[in-house]
Amino acid sequence: MARERLYLFDTTLRDGAQTSGIDFSVTEKIVIAELLDRLGVDYAEGGYPGANPTDDEFFAEKRTQKARFTAFGMTKRAGRSVSNDPGLQQILAADVDAYCFVAKSWDYHVKVALGCTNDENLESIADTVKAAVATGREAMIDCEHFFDGYKTNPDYALACAKTAYDAGARWVVLCDTNGGTLPDEIKDIVTKVQAVVPGGHLGIHTHDDTGHAIANALAAVDAGARQIQGTLNGIGERCGNANLISLIPTLLLKPAYSDRLEIGVAKDQLAEITSISHAFDEILNRSPNRHAPYVGETAFATKAGIHASAILKDPQTYEHVAPEAVGNRRRVLVSDQAGKSNLLGELQRLGISVDKADPRLDHLLADVKQKEAEGYAYEAADASFELLARRALGEVPQFFAVNSFRVMVERRHNAIGELVSVSEAVVKLDIDGEKRMSVAEGNGPVNALDMALRKDLGKYQAAIDGLELIDYKVRILNGGTGAVTRVLIESHDTSAHRRWFTIGVSSNIVDASFQALVDSINYALLKAESA
Fold first, then answer.
1. Alpha-carbon distance 364 to 360, whole Å?
2. Quick check: 525 pLDDT over 80?
3. Can you give the pTM of this predicted structure?
4. 512 exposed, middle or buried (CB, 10 Å; 0-12, 13-18, 19+)?
C-alpha cells in the first residue's frame, strides 16, 4: 500500500523568534535557513516582510535551496481592497515560494481584536487567498485560535476554514494558539473539520503550554492532517512550539507512522539531526538540553548497573531506537549505582582499552563510588571521569602541579566614586620543575582564578588558547552556610570545537570551583597531546 505524504513546515524564524530572549540577526537567519535545508523540511517560514528591518533584509532574496521559502503575513484589513492594503501588497511582492497568512477563526477575536463583523473577516480570508493564488504561489491560511473558536462557535470556525479552502488555499492550518487543547480534543475536532476541508489540505500548529505540543500534533496526524508546523528544538512563544527535532525521528522510526506516512527527510539526513539541533543551540548561544529526546547527551545513557550489563549484551534491551540513526551515541554512565559493566562500557566508549580482569578496575570502581558518596556526579562530568580513569590506569602525565592559590575580594569605591567589587587571584604552579606565579583580576573570584590559572602555562599555553568557560553551575548538597558545594563547569575549545564538563566538590565554593577549573585545563591538555 502506498504511503501518504506528510509535509513539515518549520516556523523557527517567525514563531520561534517570539521566544523570550531570542533575537535573530540577518546572518543568523541565513545560517538557520541553511540548517533547515540540510534537515529536509518542506517549508521554511522566514518571517514577516515589512514588519522590521531584519525581515526586510532577509526577504531581499530567496534564502533556501530546497525548502519552500515562505513569507508570513496577515489577511487584508476589513473595509479595504487587496490593492489598497500596503502591508498585504508588500508580502505579495516578496520573492518566495509560498505565503502563510494568519486569520482569525474565533468570533470572539474577530469582534475584540479586529473590530469587524464575522462576514467581513470571511471576506478578508477569501480575498487574500485569491490574491495570493493569482501570483502563482502557494497560499495557506493559519486559522488562529481555531480550537478555542471551535469550542465556542463551531459553525463559524468551520466557515473560516471552508472559506480559505474554497478560495484556493493549498493548506488550511488549524492553530492551537493558546496551547490549552488536549490530544483527544485535537483528534476529535480535526476529524470533524474534514467535513469541509479534506485532510490532505489540513495542517496543525500546536503550542506546548500543557506539555502536549508533540502529542497534539501527532493526534492531528492520526485524525488526517497532513502538514505539521513546528520549530527547531521546540522554541517559541511562552512554553514553545511542537519540536520538529523530536517529531521527525518519531515519524521516521516508529512503525505507527513510518508504515503509512512518508516525509521529505531521508535516513542520511536523520543521522544529522543531533548535530543540527546542537548547531542551532550554538547559534542561540546556549547549551544543548542534555535530556532532550533522541538528540540529548543522555538520551541513550544508562546509569543502573543491571541495565548497563544488559545493554552491553544487546542494546535493544534498553533502547527504543538505535542512537546512530539520529546521529547520537550510547553512553553507559559511571556512578554510585554502577557495576563493573558500567565501568567497562564507559571506558570502551572513551577509547580506553583494559582487560576486565585488571585489578586496577576494582580500585577505580571503589574510588568512583567513594567520590560520589562525597558529592561528585560523574554522569554529569564525563571529562573529570575520564581524567580519574586514565590516572588510575597511569595514562595521564602531570602537565603541571598547583602549589597554592589565593583569591581576594575587595569592595571599594572606584575613581569616580562608584562602589564596586574587585577580585584578585594569585596561582603558583610548578611546570617541569620550574615555579611560576600568575596574578589576575576578574569580575568574581572564579573568573579571577580562571584567568590566573590560564595566564602562563609555559610550553602548554598554545594548547589552551581557544579554551573558554561557557557555563558554571553551583549546587548546595546539604544545608547551612558551611554546606558541601558541587560545582559543574562546561568548557569549550573553540579551535577543536569540543565541549566538556568537569566537576569539583568542597565545603568551600572557591575550592570546588578551582578543582573543576584544573580538571578542565588538564582535559584540554590531554586531548591536545593525543591529537
1. 6
2. yes
3. 0.73
4. buried
